[in-house]
Fold this sequence. Notes:
Layout: H1 13-28, H2 34-40, E1 46-53, E2 57-58, H3 62-70, E3 77-80, E4 87-88, E5 93-100, H4 101-132, E6 138-140, H5 150-159, E7 173-175, H6 177-183, H7 186-196, E8 203-207, H8 210-219, E9 224-228, H9 232-242, E10 247-251, H10 259-263, E11 269-271, H11 274-277, E12 284-288
Parallel strand pairs: 6-11, 7-8, 8-9, 9-10, 10-11
Antiparallel strand pairs: 1-5, 1-12, 2-4, 3-5
Helix pairs in contact: 1-3, 1-4, 3-4, 4-5, 7-8, 8-9
Amino acid sequence: MTIRPPSIRPLPDLMLEPLVRAGLMEDLGRGGDLTTDVTLGADNPAAHAVLSARQAGVVAGLDMARLAFTLMDPAIEFTVAAPDGTHVTPGQVIASVRGPARGILSGERVALNFLSHLCGIATATAQVAAAVEPFGVKVSCTRKTMPGMRAIQKYAVRAGGGANHRFGLDDAILIKDNHLAIAGGIRPALTRARAAAGHLVCIELEVDTLEQLAEGLEVGGVDVFLLDNMTPEQLRKAVSMIDHRAVAEASGGVTPENAATIAATGIDLISMGWLTHSVRAMDIGLDYQP
Length: 290
């Protein structure tokens, strides 16, 4: 049974299984696992293996790994040792896998691909979250996710202690530079947004300059200002101008090294696209036990 920290709610298998099935089908191709077939022959002995961290990080994606094995063979038992959200050290066992060897061997790569990627996202999120924690600033991902993987990538951000931005085009209004260029500017874009938005729909306006911010504040109706690629000095001025009338979100060029400097400007939220679109996978191995 998987046990998680109380703040991390699991995604239902109903959402995860199609992704894992697609990964397994892609790997098995048209002929199945030829290597396992020729090396084991007709045998399918019981095997025991452990998923181990080969570097420090934060765990995320164990349900994906579990499904990769149990969809190959329901007789496989998957036991969690370090639940999603756990900070682990090199060599620490994350989970164990027991059961028919064929299913373990055939599901290994898909399990590790999902798990390593999602642990990488959780680990990177945790690094930035730790840097900005003294300032009470939240860390968020963006919509820059791999097609089909948005739900699990955003879940990994939560496992690392971060928050989620909007999930799609349909759950919030985010007016960006190209919208402004085509709509004719901030005033007409905001006026139309305010007239059409439902009472539960948030309106966010991306601004590149303090002049744009001033215009957005004058027009009004903005719930969140996305302060894009501003310097720390500009961010401090922007926070003063907003004066708690809206959420102040900083984005663009944020790294674990400069996150604290950005957070110290008084903003409420830092968002980063690289958390999901180009994060480095965490090194995890499947080690067979005698």
